[in-house]
């Protein structure tokens, strides 16, 4: 398989390129050619006025199409991976919840043993959201399993996964957290901060020990006050990455704009935090062991009404940022591709159009709609 894409523009690793051709050879990206001179026998696929961008990378997603990662079901995991192609997602990290070690081990083992054989969006690793959290900002995390940070447990889960765990989130004030963080990083796991009532000073200490990102900015963390900056203050005042859920429910657009102004698109990763109700009708669902009502585009716990993940699709988050006037389309796409890949330590395999990487890309029409999704240079979704 060897062809050249022609389009109005291409979002490459080095920025937006107007016109030209992008080579696709043996399922990988070749060279971007600004000139019109091609080999005589070159096969050209002309996308007209379209924009070619990297496939989206969702590094925080619990489920989709009625299935949850915590179900520990191979068929369900396959359905999630296949369904994400229609959202423009070509790489993702199945994300767990706070649960027993036995349950987490079973899920990690399932993913580790089967990820390479699942068709659809590529499983590039596992994200453990918990279990080392604290209760004041627990959200939809189960406090029964919130134990002190335990590096031996993480290493056991990592072994069960075959080395697939790429991210873990914890509360920096949790017992053992500061000892845990550098050991987790040394084991190849990025450490994030969330579901926490930490002080500003506790958050900074965690970052000094090797933590590198904040979980779903503003949500599940101590707020910003002018005499007690809290986790949100640490998020704003440091260079760590931050996840954002841009569904119009988790963060007001004005608060998103403030964060973009403070950190720039280079440090912000769009995520969905999507649960099993994504792509499904409104109604009653579950997130982990909790009942959730989905109504008017939001997922909330039946008991207490807290937001319980989302039903957001990642391409919709890109559209929202542009339609709200917060940033340009190239910047929004960077926050859904290259930046999440970098923050999760998987930028060597996905998230950008670069010679030698797998040709996973999307085609966007002038009306800012997803037209097509490609994996390894092959068309896998068409609107």
General description of the model:
With 383 residues, the chain is α/β, with parallel strands linked by helices. It has helices at residues 74-83, 101-114, 151-161, 177-186, 200-208, 230-237, 253-263, 314-323, 329-335, 338-344; strands spanning 2-6, 9-12, 15-18, 21-25, 28-33, 44-46, 51-54, 56-61, 63-64, 67-68, 89-96, 122-123, 126-129, 165-170, 190-193, 213-214, 241-244, 268-270, 283-287, 290-295, 298-301, 361-364, 370-375, 378-382. Strands 8, 11, 12, 13, 14, 15, 16, 17 and 18 form a 9-stranded parallel beta sheet that branches. The radius of gyration is 20 Å and the shape is globular.
Q: What brief labels describe this structure?
A:
alpha/beta; 383 residues; single chain; 10 helices; 9-stranded parallel β-sheet
């Amino acid at each position: 398989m060897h062809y050249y894409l022609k389009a109005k523009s291409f979002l490459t690793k080095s920025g937006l390129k107007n016109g030209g051709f992008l080579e696709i050879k043996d399922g990988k990206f070749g060279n971007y050619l600004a000139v019109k001179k091609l080999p005589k026998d070159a096969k050209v696929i002309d996308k007209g006025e379209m924009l070619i961008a990297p496939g989206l990378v969702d590094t925080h997603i619990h489920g989709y199409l009625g299935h949850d990662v915590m179900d520990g079901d191979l068929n369900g995991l396959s359905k999630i991976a296949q369904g994400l192609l229609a959202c423009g997602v070509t790489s993702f990290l199945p994300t767990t919840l706070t649960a027993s070690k036995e349950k987490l081990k079973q899920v990690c083992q399932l993913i580790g043993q089967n990820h390479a054989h699942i068709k659809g969006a590529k499983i590039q690793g596992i994200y453990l959201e918990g279990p080392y959290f604290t209760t004041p900002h627990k959200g939809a995390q189960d406090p029964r399993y919130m134990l002190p940070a335990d590096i031996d447990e993480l290493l056991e889960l990592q072994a069960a996964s075959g080395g697939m765990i790429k991210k873990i989130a914890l509360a920096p004030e949790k017992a053992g957290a500061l000892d845990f963080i550098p050991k987790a990083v040394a084991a190849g796991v990025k450490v994030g901060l969330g579901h926490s009532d930490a002080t500003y000073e506790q958050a900074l200490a965690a970052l000094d020990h090797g933590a590198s990102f904040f979980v779903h900015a503003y949500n599940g963390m101590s707020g910003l006050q002018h005499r007690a900056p809290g986790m949100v203050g640490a998020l704003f005042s440091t260079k760590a990455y931050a996840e954002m859920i841009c569904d119009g429910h988790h963060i007001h657009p004005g608060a998103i704009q403030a964060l973009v102004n403070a950190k720039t698109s280079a440090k912000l990763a769009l995520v969905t935090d999507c649960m099993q109700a994504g792509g499904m009708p409104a109604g009653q669902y579950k997130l982990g062991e909790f009942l959730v009502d989905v109504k008017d585009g939001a997922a909330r716990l039946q008991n207490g009404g807290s937001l319980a993940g989302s039903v957001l699709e990642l391409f919709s988050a890109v559209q929202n940022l542009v339609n709200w006037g917060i940033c340009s389309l190239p910047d929004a796409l960077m926050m859904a591709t290259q930046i999440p890949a970098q923050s999760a330590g998987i930028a060597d395999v996905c998230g950008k159009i670069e010679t030698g990487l797998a040709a996973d890309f999307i085609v966007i029409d002038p009306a800012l709609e997803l037209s097509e999704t490609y994996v390894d240079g092959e068309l896998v979704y068409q609107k």
